[in-house]
Amino acid sequence: MNANRDKLPLPRWQIALRIVGAVLLTLCALMVVLGSTVLAPQLQGPRFLLYWTWCTLLTFAAIIIALWDMLLVRRASKRTQRELFRREFMSTNLRDKPRQRPE
Questions:
Q1: Distance between CA atoms of 31 and 2, rounded to whole angstroms?
Q2: In whole angstroms, what is the distance from residue 17 CA to residue 72 CA?
Q3: How far is CA 81 from CA 1, 4, 11, 84, in A?
Q4: What is the torsional sign of CA 12, 14, 15, 21?
Q5: DSSP letters of the chain?
Q6: CA 66 to CA 58: how far, in whole Å?
């Protein structure tokens, strides 16, 4: 079986959403490393507060995007399950076939 054929295709906007989430997470990680090492002496007073506030806001944005993507994947999964159920169990040959009771 072809592995690519079994995967559900992602819409372009969902791919873009995942790229934005990855960029935000990369920025957050970079800010944490730089803020803890290289920029630590320069971050005093209001700069410290502003820098870490931005880092926190970027982190929350990444979390919101991840939750949104999770909901979209869940919705697509439910839609696929319903379609598979309809296709397999609601077809005309199964509906018209008489039920056989086990003896």
A1: 41
A2: 11
A3: 20, 19, 18, 5
A4: positive
A5: --HHHHSPPPPHHHHHHHHHHHHHHHHHHHHHHHHHTTTTTT--THHHHHHHHHHHHHHHHHHHHHHHHHHHHHHHHHHHHHHHHHHHHSSHHHHHSPP----
A6: 12
| Reported pTM | 0.73
d(C-alpha 22, C-alpha 17), whole Å: 9
Residue 53 is predicted with a pLDDT of 97
Contact (CB, 8 A) for 35 and 53 = no
* Phi and psi based region of residue 3 (left: phi greater than 0; alpha: psi -120 to 50; beta: remaining): alpha
User: pLDDT means per 10 residues in the chain (103 residues)?
Assistant: 64 91 97 96 95 97 96 91 86 62 64
CA neighbor of 58 nearest in space, from 99, 11, 23 = 23
